[in-house]
Amino acid sequence: MAVLPVLNIGGMQIFRIQGGDGSLRRSLRVGATILKVYAGLTVALAVALWAAGMPRFDAVVHAMSTISTGGFGTTDASLGSFNSPTIDLIACMGMVLGGIPYLLFPQLARGRWRTILLPTPMSTAQTELPVKAVVYDRNGAEIAEHRVPGKIILHCLEGRVLLGLEQGATDLGANQWIYLEGSAPHSLKALEDTSLLLTIFFP
User: Fold this and answer.
1) Residue of 13, 22, 31 whose CA lies nearest to 141
2) Is CATH 2.60.120.10 correct for 112-202?
3) Using an 8 Å Cβ cutoff, are 35 and 47 in contact?
4) What average pLDDT does this structure show over 143-172?
5) Degrees to nearest 5, angle at CA 166 with 119 and 125
6) Domains in the chain: boundaries
7) Higher pLDDT, 128 or 57
């Protein structure tokens, strides 16, 4: 949905209804960032595969497939048809990069390496289905107390939010995150214009 307004093919009315033109402008900026990161990673991976000996067309196709973790190839044997450990290694690195939330890359470019080095529950979630979403809250916006069946990681990318919990309220600022057990009651109130990366691990 964040990309649709950038493409100008839909989603505009939804954003206006939800948060007005301010939310739409923020969504346009985030959507443009996602597209730039995706395009940049795809080009870099295609060049790396081509330099490793893959024909140009195959390099482009496998770059798009690797970053999107789509798994398709230009031959029945896929990467195996090139018989190159270097190409296999580059593809593995591309899949790892493709699995990182794209909104973290601009922060890394600004030198905020701590953002990606923070511990995450990915290693303990092998039997759970992670679902990620970026939540935008304008200053003063509130989300009433609710529960989610899965475990939650709430990562504040920018801004500041007040998180209401059973044991009391806690202030979450930029580059801070919190882990909540499944079905833990919580509420949110944006103290500034805020972007949150929400990861839910459904059992």
Assistant:
1) 22
2) yes
3) no
4) 88
5) 30
6) 4-99, 112-202
7) 57
